[in-house]
Hints:
Blueprint: E1 4-7, E2 10-13, E3 18-24, E4 34-39, E5 46-51, E6 58-60, E7 68-73, E8 78-83, E9 92-101, E10 107-109, E11 115-120
Amino acid sequence: QVQLVESGGGLVQAGGSLRLSCVASGRSFSYYDMGWLRQAPGKERDVVAAISVSGSNTYYADSVKGRFTISRDNAKNTMYLQMNSLKPEDTAVYYCAVVRVGWPPRAFGSWGQGTQVTVSS
Length: 121
């Protein structure tokens, strides 16, 4: 299993931006479709975005379309989530994960430790 480490979370005012990063260990990153999921307090985990190995296929939850952009740099073993026009409802712990079943992404594995995103109103 690939090991994943997320970073880039923080506290931001509504309308602001953050960029999350996910660094994977080993060379296996380039073999996996990847995604971002989030979990808000008291709620279930929800897929936010996903990207295929080459970046040719992407998925976005309706709630983030037009605001979030997923990308990856296989040479750097890194995936990104650019989050613009943030809303309080985006507040959650964000996780990087391997897509096990797609497309669209339906099952995930190899979770990272998560990074907290808090958007104030």
